[in-house]
Amino acid sequence: MDLREGDFDAFFQAPFDAYGQGTPYVSPMRSDLRRFYAAGVNPLFANAADFSFFTVHRDGEVIGRIGAHVHAASNALYKTNTAYFAYFDCADDSEAAKTLLGAAENWARQRGFDTIAGNFNLTAMQQIGVTTDGFDGVPYVDQVYSPPHIARLLAENGYEAYFPMRTFEVDLEKFDPTTMLGPKQQDILNSPDWKFAQVTRATIPQRLEDARQLLNSGFGHNPMFVPLTAEEFEFQAKELKWIIDPRITSVIHYKGEPAAIALVIPDLNPFIRATKSRISWSTPWHFLVNRLKRTRALVVYASVREDLHARGVMSAMMVNLLPIMRAAGYRQLGVTWVWDENAGSIRLMEHLNAKPLHRNHLFRKALI
Question: Using the 8-state DSSP alphabet, how is residue 171 labeled?
Fold first, then answer.
């Protein structure tokens, strides 16, 4: 068994070799993974001491990986002393898992942290968790997926599951959006105070700034959420400018100010899988094929400004948006994840007749 630190080529290759063919898992693009782990490029990491990554090899073959990092703003905001692991992908191999997790734990201990938790996969949209059920569900882009043995290996190494979440899927062909239309929603759709802000290629930069402000306002009281700076959001969401379908992202303004957003993107996983997560001469062709054939979209997040909660705003937006999505050729709508105790979001899933797709948890371990 050979443990290596900082071998990026092996780090990228690990899940392909560990999981083999036929897995629902889809790797991030190699270029994205590289810039996530780049000090001074990723605003989360002021210097190289803020993160590391490890791979484990047997007989010259990479069979697993893990990243370790700190989120200083989160520890400062919540008065915690936690390090995080990310991208824990490993063959069903107890020795390999123990070696990888031990490496991340030692990295954290050496820096004085008392807890380690994950997966936290370094995206603005909080791509978090480990899959614990629903393993047959085909993941959408930005949804975390891991095979059944990952949660078991974590438990074997003393990690406890917490923060239960679910991903969801809506069948747009069967759902009738008018079932969500009540008096509050009708008032919003009829009022001149509420106006849908145009999303076009020219307005996407402003709409993305709306998206950041609304994320910070609407999620401000959610556990573990850390407000994003403009720099952080731009770094982690700038690719949306190229992949967004303006027809299916919706922003509504109230009296001229951003009020709510449903940030929706086409599902890119078929494209990413076709490219094997690498940019090459064939990438534009694969992107075009996916664009012509896409029928799935993903709600990256939906957020209503804090002072407008409980007024039926998101339901009104969905009444307007879902028929547009269906007319644009989309047939299924995924949702990244919803915490079990987020009553408002769970209620929205019920109103959408959304079906659970995966069960996810965070995992943590005390280091002292």
Answer: E
Q: Give the Cα separation of 5 and 249 in Å (integer).
A: 40
Q: What architecture is the 170-359 domain classified under in CATH?
A: 3-Layer(aba) Sandwich (3.40)
CA distances 123 to 16, 143, 297, 300, 317, Å, are 21, 11, 19, 11, 25
Domain at 2-166: CATH code: 3.40.630.30
Q: Are 248 and 324 in contact (CB under 8 A)?
A: yes
Tens of pLDDT along 240-260? 778 889 899 999 999 999 999
3-state secondary structure of 97: helix
Topology match between the domains 2-166 and 170-359:
yes
Domain boundary assignment for the chain? 2-166, 170-359
Distance between CA atoms of 244 and 165, rounded to whole angstroms?
Answer: 26
Residue-wise pLDDT for 34-79, tens only, equals 999 999 899 889 899 999 999 999 998 999 999 999 999 999 999 9
The token duo for 192 is 């001149």
Say which DSSP state 157 is in: T
How far apart, in Å, are the Cα atoms of 163 and each of 118, 132, 167? 11, 12, 13
The model's pTM: 0.94
pLDDT class for 124, splitting at 50, 70, 90?
very low
Nearest alpha-carbon partner for 157 in 118, 122, 120: 118
Q: Measured on CA atoms in the order 74, 79, 81, 82, is the torsion positive or negative?
A: negative
